[in-house]
Design a protein that fits this description.
Distance between the termini of chain A: 41 Å
Oligomer: homotrimer
Low-confidence stretches of chain A: none
Shape of chain A: elongated
Mean pLDDT of chain A: 96
Radius of gyration of chain A: 26 Å
Strand content of chain A: 15-25%
Structural class of chain A: alpha/beta
Strand order of the largest sheet of chain A: 1-11-13-12-14-17-15-16
Number of helices of chain A: 12
Chain lengths: 435, 435, 435
């Protein structure tokens, strides 16, 4: 077994073990489940934790009260617990208010959520900003509930607490940054929750091993929407000044082909890098930006308009398992997750190499390559045709305006060859790095 | 019969009755026929009349002398009037100078205009800027004129008078304007004259009934070329400051599909509105701007380059009845005229709604829609996917730069839905109208 | 025989006679063969000669020592000269250092250059910047060389001399210029050397006969690469200020269709003129710019980025005869050379007419054409449709921004018609020439 194989297998085992630890944690917008999730992620990467107090304003929003579930269950007419949050944290409507009482079957029914079209699945449901209580269950189970009196216990509390966010910056030499953002606010959902943080953490481990980094890579974990907005209220100005590109990572664990959703700008460096890097991983489904979806709509809100796209496999909202208990461990594949990390690492490498801009120190005519060992000193017939194409391309477009990805786009030469040519020219004193 | 049907039928009856009144009036560049035409139009809309004195300079031009026809006829060898202006105002060459005399058949022939290729039609002919007299008749009639002596009476006068123009502004709240321009200088021609003023007047009546108007709609009637140039000499600076879009209305009565000719800029708001609005009325024939045609060539002259396109059915110069007596009442259709008013009203509504630009008052991240009743407060599975798409699109692109038509172009959502979403956001204090 | 036929036949005879004189001259980067070549060209055009001393710096380069060949041959074991520079100047590796000695067959072999894949051809080979000596011969001859002792004489010298360049400017009235550049540094090669100077000289003779010239046409002859760089060090600033367009002329004698390689900008006037002018000469093979090839890579280096493309038939490096003794008189066609002159003259005429920008002196509305005799004063039916289209187009786009080529591109009207219309408008005082 080769060492590379070993490394890939170790990574895959780590992904599955971490998934199994994160799966049962009771995540919501706020609370202990979120903190435990961030604790697990912090074992892989040096996350800085932010606890933003309830009531803190963030643009148009206010950090909500924290929500705690002590217990939540329904006891049937025969005295057995027919629904219990302890079995699955999907069973309780997110942010349910406290309630205790005895209800008839039909009174109870007004508080039940199920999916007639998908009768075996428990839906994921929330009511963050309107006071409700409720239980989620499969349509099949709901239909089987007999008439009679039910005892309902929703022992929850909301109280002034905090919203939990984490970030960390894997630093680069240039001061420029790439954002990688995912969310940690859904309970036990595999593709539309855990795939994002798992790919992000795996990607961190990969990037941390690069021998050098021109770019800094900033990883952010926060609740979807409110968390991203609070993060922007803390770091938005910094991102406006520093961000070269970014991606929201979500729904990266299922077995479908990759999906790329462009940034609002449509032709940002993030988007151009996706065009250059992702097709190597199979046919890509391309989507133009829309202000719907995940946190790209916050990063691309008109006050920021950051160059942030989104990388997915099956897009949220488009697959039938979405936001149901069927989005579970069986629905995803750890090989697919690892392929997603491969694709994201390729994106990051494309940004690292392709986002660099160089300026020629000998821009008037071409520099003498032969005397520097960059071109053959003997020409016989057509033997030198193509001998130093990458170098000629890099030097001609080292105008401080074209980035190396633009040289790739115009020349069709592999970015890696252009990067290597640029390094040789840098070493020969023919170029300087602009950023 | 529904009230809407009644209203449409009343409009159609009004169109035909007005056509019948306008048809016999002896229009030319100047004169009583033009004034009578404007009098009729002024019954529908509060036209302001301008009488610009002969000799008044207007850029490279000078307002010509006024032309009056007292009588014009040819008496044949047998003593009967073989051609008479009293029968049709097409029979006399426009701006014919006065003449009285007796001529042989061949001497007369040098002053006759007919169309060999269309032997039953009387051509429309003019000689505005070179002194001539002549008569127009069908080739068939011309061929039948016997040898012998003819008596010719051209009892016309030119004298210092005035060029007649009219305009009116249906005001809007924004100070921005839309120009709707047509001409009133051809004698009895239906499609290539009366269809334009009739559609303009019908459109005025429609727009006047709108409950509110952001845009002002400016209607102009003037002689083609010289009239438009004189109007620009009076209002060109105002139009440069205020005009968002405009259209020359001409040849809108025949039964063919719509034609749209783009403004010189090619992608002006006028052109984008046409792309959005006109296809609902059937396949559209699109033409790029050319500096040939009607008064768009004045509005789009290089000193102005106003955003003015042109709406037609069959384009001038391309149909065989053009500029002949066959362009008569039978050639046009009042249903087609009414359909043209529908299309123009849709264009105006697209400008009214789609030309508006908004600025978000909560541009950093998205505003909290749920608390404002703009988004469902309960999420179960994928039930909210698409619940407020129009609002999200409007808010994200409310950057003071994109107009609502651009949001329609990017999102593919119906403009009416986006407009409605914008109104809800305005009411919620999330947006302000930029213009 | 018509006079035009005579003129074309005289030109073709001149081309062949000049080819025959230039063919045997021993061209290299430097030296007497180059000077003799420029002497011949100077018989056709008033070339200014520049002798730039060895050691002169030019950007990243230094003018090399001059190289002189007194004699170079190899005597075989039987005492006969088996390879002799006197037979063909291709036999000696360019810039070979001096050597005298007796070598075995295998020692000699390390200094022989041949082409196994093209066994009858002698390759063209150089070692400008590394000290070597060597002989070029056909693979067939090389294989036939017997074992035994060989006497080698390479009687060459390098010494402080000069690099030879020539240019001349056929002046125009506007101060704007077009560059036509070719090279004179290869020994006896027909397509990839002499075709360029011959077309340039023939083009000069054509342009010199034009009755007027708005543009100046600058012809440059220099060694490829180092010569162009030295020329830029002398005239680069002037070209930055004055150049509207330029072309590198090379490989214009073979029988293939034309090839056009775009300038670095991709849409420069040079490129637009090629699109307008070249298709009349048959299907054109279009290539985007690449910083490989001939001296376009110097003119389009990032410090200059001049609007310089390249006109060819078969592109250098792509045909099997390239840089071998098979690129000889038989490989080219004097009819093809003359067709290349035709194409280049058409390019120059397109620049001369199409690069002109005009400004209307009556830009507000259209000027009154009829009173100036530019439009018919009698309109009957549709008879004037199209009567003055070119004039209307020229006047409408005489905004000082669109050049006449842009009017051609938008209108589809022949450039010659637009040019003629512009001249009529200039004469009528309606336009002024901007540049």
């Amino acid at each position: 077994m080769s060492s590379a194989a070993t490394s890939a297998e170790l990574e895959r085992a780590w992904l599955e073990a971490t998934f199994d630890r994160l799966w049962p944690l009771a995540r919501s917008l706020t609370g202990a489940g979120v903190r435990e999730t961030h604790d697990v992620l912090a074992e892989t990467m040096p996350l800085e934790r932010y606890e933003v107090a309830s009531g803190t304003p963030a643009y148009d929003w206010t950090v909500p009260l924290e929500w705690r579930v002590n217990a939540a269950y329904v006891v049937g007419p025969d005295g057995t617990r027919v629904i219990d949050y302890a079995d699955s944290n999907l069973h309780l409507l997110g942010y349910s208010v406290a309630f205790r009482g005895r209800l008839s079957r039909s009174e109870l029914d007004a508080h039940l959520y199920s999916l007639p079209a998908r009768p075996n699945a428990v839906p994921y449901a929330t009511s963050y900003y309107a006071p409700r209580w409720g239980f989620c269950l499969s349509q099949r189970q709901r239909d089987a509930l007999p008439e009679g009196e039910y005892e309902v216990v929703v022992d929850t509390e909301t109280f002034p607490g905090a919203l939990t966010l984490s970030d960390c910056l894997l630093p680069g030499t240039s001061g420029r940054e790439v954002l990688l953002s995912s969310y940690t606010c859904h309970p036990s959902l595999a593709n539309n929750e855990l795939s994002g943080p798992l790919v992000a953490a795996g990607l961190y481990a990969r990037l941390a091993k690069w021998p050098t980094r021109r770019l800094g890579f900033r990883f952010v974990f926060a609740a979807e929407t409110i968390g991203a907005i609070v993060y922007l209220s803390m770091r938005g100005q910094h991102l406006l000044e520093r961000l070269d590109a970014g991606y929201v990572l979500t729904c990266l664990g299922d077995r479908a082909a990759l999906t790329y959703k462009r940034s609002r700008r449509g032709d940002s460096l993030a988007d151009r890098a996706a065009v250059a890097a992702l097709p190597a991983f199979g046919e890509v489904r391309w989507h133009d930006f829309s202000p719907l979806g995940s946190d790209e709509r916050q990063y691309c809100s008109p006050g920021f308009d950051l160059p942030v796209g989104s990388v997915m496999r099956s897009m949220y909202g488009t697959y039938p398992e979405y936001h149901t208990s069927d989005d579970d461990k069986a629905f995803i594949s750890f090989a697919a997750l690892q392929g997603s990390i491969d694709a994201c690492e390729a994106l990051c490498l494309t940004l690292e190499q392709g986002g660099a801009r160089y300026r020629s120190l000998a821009p008037f005519g071409e520099p003498q390559l032969g005397s520097r060992g960059l071109y053959p000193d003997l020409t016989v017939g057509a033997n030198n045709v193509g001998a130093a194409d990458a170098i000629f391309w890099v030097l001609n477009f080292a105008d401080g305006d074209h980035d190396l990805l633009a040289v790739h786009e115009r020349s069709g030469l592999p970015l890696a060859d252009l990067h290597s040519a640029a390094q040789r020219c840098l070493a020969a004193g023919l170029l300087e790095l602009v950023d």
